[in-house]
Amino acid sequence: MNIIQIIEKKKLGYALTQQEIQFFIKGATDGSIPDYQLAALLMAIRINGMDRDETGWLTLAMAHSGDMLDLSVIDGVPVDKHSTGGVGDTTTLIVAPLVAACGVPVAKMSGRGLGHTGGTIDKLESIPGFSTEMGMEDFIAQVRRIRIAVIGQTKDLAPADKALYLLRDITSTVDSLPLIASSIMSKKLASGARAIVLDVKTGAGAIMRTLDKSIELAQVMVRIGADAGRDVIALVTDMDEPLGSHIGNALEVKEAIDVLAGRVQGPLLDVSMELGTQMLIAAGAADNALKARQTLDTMLVSGQGMEKLRELISAQGGDPEVCAQPSLLPQAKVVCDAHLKDAGYIHRMDTARLGYLAQRMGAGRTKKTDVIDPSVGFVLRHRIGDAVAAGDAIATVYARGEEDIAFAREELLQAITILPEPARPLKLVHAIVTPDGIIPL
Amino acid sequence: MNIIQIIEKKKLGYALTQQEIQFFIKGATDGSIPDYQLAALLMAIRINGMDRDETGWLTLAMAHSGDMLDLSVIDGVPVDKHSTGGVGDTTTLIVAPLVAACGVPVAKMSGRGLGHTGGTIDKLESIPGFSTEMGMEDFIAQVRRIRIAVIGQTKDLAPADKALYLLRDITSTVDSLPLIASSIMSKKLASGARAIVLDVKTGAGAIMRTLDKSIELAQVMVRIGADAGRDVIALVTDMDEPLGSHIGNALEVKEAIDVLAGRVQGPLLDVSMELGTQMLIAAGAADNALKARQTLDTMLVSGQGMEKLRELISAQGGDPEVCAQPSLLPQAKVVCDAHLKDAGYIHRMDTARLGYLAQRMGAGRTKKTDVIDPSVGFVLRHRIGDAVAAGDAIATVYARGEEDIAFAREELLQAITILPEPARPLKLVHAIVTPDGIIPL
């Protein structure tokens, strides 16, 4: 087999065989195929696409390019969730403890963020002492002991995906449905969960900006999972505005704590509950959505969800007192409100721009080696549909210095559209995608 | 400006600006843009194309990436010819001396062959002592003195094209019309000729296999030349069978000598005369095709063309006695005929396969560092349309050993299709493409 012939075939729009896909994934993993040939192939895939079989084979080849984790020693059905990424999207920190509190094992390997704000791992690391590095045996032992562990992906997890992702990021080939789907699902398959709930974001702050494209991505991933014998379901949820009000790593941990403490309701809790419901059903811990929801409500109201978060933090070396006293989290140097100039109703938020604002302030990375500042970010005081008056605080900004405050104030005003006519709040969950079809909501 | 944004734009099918094209050509030349980003961009260009403006800007940017040769000190209009490459296509060795004998300056920089058989430079180097390396001053001085010089392209000639070509070859992005056209024309513009005659091959042994695609390539190149203020015309000529009967470097030199000596007529002479006619007209040395043709005939019949070839060989250190005694050229170790099994008429020749056969026997390169064996190749004894009997010799094979002879015999029979019903000889020149339009022939 010859990489040039494989590139040629995809360039002309033909489907690749499983052997050809395995060949180039092996070459991407062991470095025997040079980057420039992989880059040409990725661009041909980006433009000419991949069919269902190719996407499935690609996912399996990437999953098997490294260790395939075996979670069978864990009692129950290990369940995982994955979000395609959004702004103020900190559902994992809420739903993982709630589901684990129900007795369902949550063995989660998470990525670090690249772009926008940090990933779940970056958020957890803003808790003083919290470690996200752990050997596989300790990881499994912790899940057996307390039903939950959240660690960073090891370098042996789908190394082919790492190699390709680095290249995609710098060759403008990120926005490819088969490449996105196989990247996500290869890591999910390799990390061993039997049941997987996907949260596919849609809108101005998501990878897929239209509902059609988001549903298509959900369908492809659900199909890949089903073909690989996993129980997979996807929710397509809104990202036309940030999900939570807090954007930034420590700020998002604080918001998750506020939600688990029962102090904060709203969209972040609602979506977390929807995801948790599907996780319990997928894990066989509830027969239907109503029962699942009631169980989760109990865990929230009784404080058992919060207790599980404390256990998780303790088990991984962090200070559980942050749950009672969020001021123990890293605090920003400068805190200031940003005020609105116009009165009216909030119609749109340029969510990607808000994400890049947080990144630029130090909450996210522009390159892998960037160090995140856990304390910075901003807290939005309003949502789409809200009536606002001139001079109202639209957000509180947490920054490293006055310069960032000024920049953030300007960007916030630019990113948020206020018009005189009333606007409706957004729908939160657009559809559920199962292997059997799409359920519009 | 940012290379990722440029890749993104072409990926989405938008036209690039002149500034963007200049930016990436500069980066390809000085090495500041890594190969993997260039590879992704080349694939996006290959799939999504380039419009007329982009292709012109690309050509100019590549031409100006190195030295722009100034031939203005040479009397008369320096004229160049270029073939897009075919099998048994040795017109330069015939037409360049004939045109120079008419007093028109031929200052030719030629490429080495990659693929198929060798290029003009490889063929000339099969003449004992012949050197194709020369400083620019000596090159121009030789043209002023004897009206002709043929040398290899210097590394300072369109270095951007060299960088991109190397990458295209190994990323399956050679077959792109704007990339082919700009690669050829950037070198022609940089090498300084005021008038350029292009020989665009069409058919089974050409880059462009269909007449439509070949005419399109001719049009694009003629337009680029006209936009750059050069006098450019293209002939679209047949490559559904080898042009000459001799394939291989020294063998092709011998055939050119036979043609200039008046011993051999046929398609190779005919196409050379057509090209020469256009070169004389383009250089202003003849008013019309009839007069140009008569002048060239005189140069051939009087032996002045052959005399010019002797002068060229002497001037560049070669042994001009090869013209009188072609047996002074490198001789193959083993020479054997290949015989036909079937009787009938020759209908088709898989010309690319014949080219690869010569390459495989040692007449061409598969990689840049390969050393060519000048002596090997084969001489076809028949053309398409010929009636043949079982047992007839279809070719004489010149090889390094018995193994190659056996392989060549097998390949020759596979590449040549013989059927019982009569077949017509092929048309040689399909069209002339000028800046004003297409003249079908």
Verbal overview:
Two copies of one chain form a homodimer. Chain A is α+β, with helices and mostly antiparallel strands and 441 residues long. Chain A has three domains: 3-49, Transferase, Pyrimidine Nucleoside Phosphorylase, Chain A, domain 3 (Up-down Bundle), CATH 1.20.970; 79-155 and 165-325 and 429-440, Pyrimidine Nucleoside Phosphorylase, Chain A, domain 2, CATH 3.40.1030.10; 332-419, Alpha-Beta Complex (Aldehyde Oxidoreductase, domain 3), CATH 3.90.1170. Helices cover 45% and strands 16% of the residues of chain A. In chain A, the strands form four sheets. In chain A, strands 1-4-5-13-14 form a five-stranded mixed beta sheet, sandwiched between helices. Chain A has a four-stranded antiparallel beta sheet with strand order 6-9-11-7. Chain A has a three-stranded antiparallel beta sheet with strand order 10-8-12. In chain A, helix 5 packs parallel to helix 11, helix 5 (91-101) crosses helix 12 (267-282) and helix 15 (351-363) runs antiparallel to helix 16. The longest helix of chain A has 17 residues, at 211-227. The radius of gyration of chain A is 21 Å and the shape is globular. The N and C termini of chain A lie far apart (47 Å). Chain A binds chain B through residues 4, 7-8, 11, 34-44, 46-48, 167, 170-173, and chain B through 4, 7-8, 11, 34-44, 46-48, 167, 170-173.
